[in-house]
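Input chain follows. Return structure tokens only.
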Amino acid sequence: MLAGVVVALAATTGAAWFHEARTPLVAQPVVQPVNVRAAIPELPALTAEEERYAAGLWAVHREAVRSAVAMSFAGITYKTDDRDPHALAQKIEPLAKFFHDAETQVRAISAPPSMSRTHGRYLEAMKLYANAADEMLKFTDDADQRHLDDAHRMNVNASENMLRVGEVLWPGQYKPH
């Protein structure tokens, strides 16, 4: 009986091997590694005039990013932990001043014609951040939740504008949002 089982297993194994040997090989698609950098179109290099503009705007941008993150965290802290409108106002007041001043500074920066759209988008971001800060301060006065909702919407739009400008002027820059 044991010999019969061994013969049956050997026959089954042989039949399976014979079947596999006769089955034509199906060509497997070759998976090429994806070059992520090649998938992202490279932007043309900035001209000297555009580089000067980018450097001038960077002086504002560096602080604007920090202030935008600080404003977001102030709102998050208020909603999740603090619930003290006075503490929120203390955090937002210097940021509101910064964004109003930044709007003025960005207006004063001369943009080359090729950067007029980029400049307008960045200026709009500073206005939106300033208005968002003002809305948050209105909330600290009257506790109307609509002010925080409006501020959040403006903050998101400003952030998107700033990120789009950053893709043009400082590609590869760390995105804090």
